[in-house]
Automatic annotation (TrEMBL):
It is found in: Cell membrane. It comes from Rhodocytophaga rosea. Signal peptide: none annotated. This is DUF3817 domain-containing protein. Keywords: Cell membrane, Membrane, Transmembrane, Transmembrane helix. Its main location: membrane. One of its GO terms (cellular component) is plasma membrane. It comes from the Bacteria. Residues 10-95 form the DUF3817 domain. The chain crosses the membrane at residues 12-33, 45-62, 74-91. It is a multi-pass membrane protein.
Length: 104
């Protein structure tokens, strides 16, 4: 796991995983709690965490696009993945995993 932290792509992969998990927690745990059990507090907390992770993910994708000269298509797919449930897991498998692992 700590090898992932040595590269820009590795850090993006970890961030994508965290963002994806936070999105799924909101969709499948905190939203039902809010609307079916009238318990909005978990949604507020995880919503804040997810919002921060989402902004960091978008920033990181744009930064890596510039630094590694990604195509606009690849950047667009990576950004689109952040708004689709399970999308960041797909992006990790299809867009990020086979990147150059050179330490920066």
């Amino acid at each position: 796991m700590f090898d992932l932290l040595k590269t820009q792509i590795g850090r993006l992969r970890l961030l994508a995983f965290a963002e994806g998990v936070s999105f799924l927690v909101i969709l499948f745990i905190t939203m039902p709690l809010k609307y079916y059990f009238d318990t909005p507090q978990p949604n507020k907390i995880f919503g804040l965490v997810h919002g921060l992770l989402f902004v960091l993910y978008v920033f990181w994708v744009v930064q890596i696009k510039i630094e590694q000269d990604w195509s606009f298509k690849k950047m667009g797919l990576a950004l689109l993945a952040s708004i689709v449930p399970f999308g960041t897991f797909w992006a990790d498998a299809r867009l990020f995993r086979n990147q150059n692992t050179e330490v920066r």
